[in-house]
Amino acid sequence: MAAIALDRLTKVYPGGVNALDAVGLDIADGEFFALLGPSGCGKTTLLRTIAGLEEATGGSVLIGGENVTALPPGRRDVAMVFQDYALFPHMTVSDNIAYPLRIKKVPGGERRAKAAGTAGELGLSALLTRRPGQLSGGQQQRVALARAMACHPRAFLLDEPLSNLDARMRLEARTFLKRLQRELRVTCVFVTHDQAEALALADRIAVMEDGRVRQVGSPAEVFRRPANTFVASFIGSTPMNLLDGEATGDGTVAVGGARVPGGPGAAGLAAGEKVVYGVRPEYLEYRTEPAEGALSGEITVVENLGSAQLVTLDGPAGSVQVVVDEDTEVPLTTTGWAVPRRDRVLLYRDGELVA
Ligand SMILES: Nc1ncnc2c1ncn2[C@@H]1O[C@H](COP(=O)(O)OP(=O)(O)OP(=O)(O)O)[C@@H](O)[C@H]1O
Ligand SMILES: [Mg+2]
């Protein structure tokens, strides 16, 4: 088990794609760390560069305090689990799990015993003689994990390991992975483009955009105080409302003709400063009548979220989404109002959070 430190890690692919742009990260020993970001932002490249499967163009990778930047993958002592699991179809579960031990020239008997032990920890004992084609997606995922665990690596690097599972299995596998990581206390770097998965699993999250890290923090930090509008729009199962506004100087913000509460950030702003007004749909209170500090609009869309409804108001401020409880009647085409929760309002100036 080991900490991982990245310093100004840069990767330029042949052809000039700048996939990693001076990435700096300190991942603690035993931490469950998520790399989150949209497709193409460099998550896989970052993981592969840590593993040594890609050569860094600049910067360094330290694992357990040792500079491994120039070491081949086999000498970095980390295990990578790929998105498609990359199991050998012609080998049994037992042989798949034991494969890395065979590469390390561990004798046959010891190899099988270790594979059986790891399989037991992951609830795979009954499946040892099957081949990958005879397993469900979730079982294949566990075999891939078992194969990674069998050599007791210093860190696990997981590239979207849940993305091949259906929604239900994915939730189960997520809980399983979290429990396993707790028990093993092994450093885990976990790649996902699913913000809910990152929030649920990680001790800390790095949110990436275009090869750069835009914010690092605990799930609560990146959810409550996204450092910039990119992170604000990316985190949250219903996207944050980000509306054009102007500070008034008296603690409120003018948004589409309404004066709405400016929240903690408003104190530091002068009258007339342009801001982006951020408030999550969960932190707006729906009203059927005009109210002080409310945004208004015509109710144009009502989406059923199960235990709540997501209502879209189209008004002078643009489109505003509000979460409304399941029992409230929300009649389409009538006017609705939404009052922001003062302590949950976030203001952004030039894209960055106003502290
Ligand atoms: N071998 C390669 N040669 C050239 N460019 C590449 C190569 N691999 C990746 N890239 C480019 O580098 C950037 C980062 O790719 P990467 O695969 O790391 O993204 P990602 O965040 O993992 O995306 P996804 O969520 O789709 O898996 C992309 O612009 C991609 O097109
Ligand atoms: Mg990827």
What does this structure look like?
- There is one protein chain.
- It contains eight helices and 21 strands.
- Helix 2 (93-103) packs parallel to helix 4.
- Helix 5 (167-184) links the parallel strand 7 and strand 8 (187-192).
- The model has no long low-confidence stretch (mean pLDDT 93).
- The strands form four sheets. Strands 6-7-8-3-9-10 form a six-stranded mixed β-sheet, with helices on both faces.
- Helices cover 24% and strands 34% of the residues.
- The protein has helices at 43-51, 93-103, 108-121, 137-149, 167-184, 195-201, 219-224, 229-234, and strands at residues 4-12, 18-27, 32-36, 58-63, 66-67, 78-81, 155-159, 187-192, 204-209, 212-217, 241-247, 252-255, 258-261, 274-279, 284-287, 295-304, 308-315, 318-325, 335-340, 346-349, 352-353.
- The two termini are 37 Å apart.
- It is of the alpha+beta class and 355 residues long.
- Residues 43-44 line the site of magnesium ion.
